[in-house]
Design brief:
Shape: globular
Order of helices and strands: HEHEHEHEHEHEHEEHEEEEEEEEEHHE
Structural class: alpha/beta
Number of strands: 18
Number of helices: 10
Length: 375
C-alpha cells in the first residue's frame, strides 16, 4: 500500500473527486497549508470545471474519468467530495485501486452500504477517513482534556443546542439536493451528524435515549426560481438520554432559524461548569470556551493553549481550519500508525445512531444504544 511503497517523508499526493464549492474553498486551502500534502489531480463530471479548478490552484492533472483519477500513479489519497448519493462509486473505485480514501460525511445514503464499504476498506488495508472533522478542532480537544483532568469534577449533564440559519423554507440552488429524503442530506444527517459526533467523540455515547422530530417546513422554495419542492424530513430534532455514568444528555437541532442562531454546549459537573458557544454553526468565528469552578462564580474565558493547534500560521476560516486539523491528524496517523482521524467505522456508528433516533421518534420508545465499534 501507499505507506510502504513511498518514502514516508514524501508529500501525500492527493486526487480530488468533485470540484464544487467546498472542494475549492475548504479542502484545497486546507491541504495547501500543510507541507505533508500535494494536490496532484482533480476530476469532475464537468471537464471544464475540473480544468478551471486545476488552473486556478496549480493542480497538474485535470483528468476526465473516475477510473483515471483513482488509478493515477501520482495519487496516494483519493478525496470523495461530491454529493452523498455519488459517494459510494468513488469510494469503491478508490478501494479497488488500493488507494487511501477520504470521504465527506455522510459516507453514503445507506447504513448498510456504509457498513459494507467500511469492511471493504479494512479488508483491503487502505487508510480510510470520513469528514467528521469538527471533533478535531483545538477547542473541543482542550475541553475534553479539561474534563479528563477533573476541571468540573464528575460530569452531571450535557446540553447542546444547534440552531441553523440555513436549511429553511428558502434555499440557494446549490442546496436543492438537501431536500429529497433519499439524498440523506437534511438537518439530522448533516448538522446532527457533525455535532453529535463532537459529543460522542469527547464525552462518549449515551447508554439510551428518546427522540422526537418534527417537520414544520412542508415545502422549500429554491432561490431565483419558481421551483417548490415538497419537504418531509425533520427540521426540528429533540434528543434526551443518559450516559453510562448517569450524566444526562439534552440536544436540540433546529433548522431555518431567522435570528439568534449558532451553537451552545453546556457541561455541568459536580465541581463546576463549562460552556462552548459560537454565533454560527459552520463558519469563521472561533468557538468561545468559558468555565467556572465553585459556587455562583461568573464564567471566565478559557483561551485554548497553543499546543492544541497543529497548524502553521494561517488565516483560514473556522470550518476550513477544522478540516486542516483533520488532514494534520491523518498525516500523523500515517507517520505514527495511530488513528486520530475519524474513519469509516465512525461514520457507520453515526449512521446507526441516526437510525435509532428515527426509530425512537416513530415508536415513541426509549432506545438502547448498542456498544459502538471502533476503527
Amino acid at each position: 500500500m501507499n505507506d510502504t511503497t513511498r518514502n514516508a517523508a514524501a508529500p501525500i499526493r492527493v486526487g480530488i473527486i468533485g470540484a464544487g464549492t467546498w472542494a475549492e474553498y475548504g479542502h484545497i486551502p486546507a491541504l495547501k497549508l500543510l507541507p505533508q500534502y500535494r494536490i496532484t489531480a482533480v476530476f469532475s463530471r464537468s471537464a471544464e470545471k475540473a480544468a478551471r479548478v486545476a488552473a486556478s490552484h496549480g493542480i497538474t492533472h485535470a483528468v476526465t474519468s473516475l477510473d483515471e483519477l483513482v488509478n493515477h500513479p501520482e495519487v496516494d489519497l483519493v478525496l470523495v467530495l461530491n454529493q452523498a448519493p455519488q459517494h459510494e462509486a468513488g469510494i469503491r473505485a478508490a478501494i479497488a485501486a488500493g488507494k487511501d480514501v477520504y470521504c465527506e460525511w455522510p459516507l453514503t445514503t445507506s447504513t448498510a452500504v456504509s457498513a459494507e464499504l467500511a469492511q471493504l476498506a479494512e479488508q483491503a488495508g487502505v487508510r480510510n477517513i470520513v469528514g467528521l472533522q469538527r471533533r478535531l478542532a483545538p477547542g473541543y480537544r482542550y475541553v475534553s482534556d479539561l474534563l479528563a483532568d477533573g476541571y468540573i469534577g464528575q460530569l452531571r449533564s450535557v446540553r447542546m443546542h444547534v440552531s441553523v440559519e440555513s436549511f429553511g423554507a428558502l434555499r440557494a440552488s446549490y442546496l436543492a439536493y438537501t431536500v429529497p429524503p433519499e439524498n440523506f442530506s437534511d438537518l439530522l444527517p448533516i448538522f446532527g451528524g457533525h455535532f453529535l459526533d463532537i459529543l460522542f467523540a469527547h464525552f462518549g455515547f449515551p447508554r439510551q435515549f428518546s427522540a422526537l422530530t418534527a417537520n414544520q417546513i412542508k415545502q422549500v422554495a429554491i432561490a431565483g426560481t419558481d421551483e417548490l419542492i415538497p419537504h418531509s424530513t425533520p427540521d426540528q430534532v429533540l434528543l434526551h438520554g443518559v450516559f453510562a455514568n448517569g450524566a444526562v444528555l439534552s440536544v436540540q437541532l433546529e433548522a431555518g432559524k431567522r435570528n439568534n442562531f449558532g451553537l451552545q454546549i453546556d457541561l455541568t459537573g459536580t465541581e463546576g461548569d463549562l460552556k462552548i458557544s459560537n454565533s454560527t454553526c459552520f463558519g469563521p468565528p472561533v468557538n468561545l470556551i468559558e468555565g467556572a469552578r465553585g459556587d455562583a462564580q461568573p464564567l471566565q474565558a478559557l483561551p485554548v493553549p497553543a499546543k492544541y493547534d497543529w497548524l502553521p500560521a494561517h488565516e483560514l476560516g473556522g470550518s476550513t481550519a477544522e478540516l486542516a486539523h483533520l488532514y494534520a491528524a491523518h498525516a500523523r496517523d500515517r507517520r505514527d500508525g495511530t488513528q486520530l482521524a475519524p474513519a469509516f467505522r465512525d461514520a457507520v456508528n453515526m449512521h446507526e445512531v441516526i437510525d435509532l433516533i428515527l426509530e425512537s421518534d416513530r415508536s415513541g420508545a426509549r432506545t438502547a444504544v448498542p456498544t459502538v465499534k471502533t476503527p
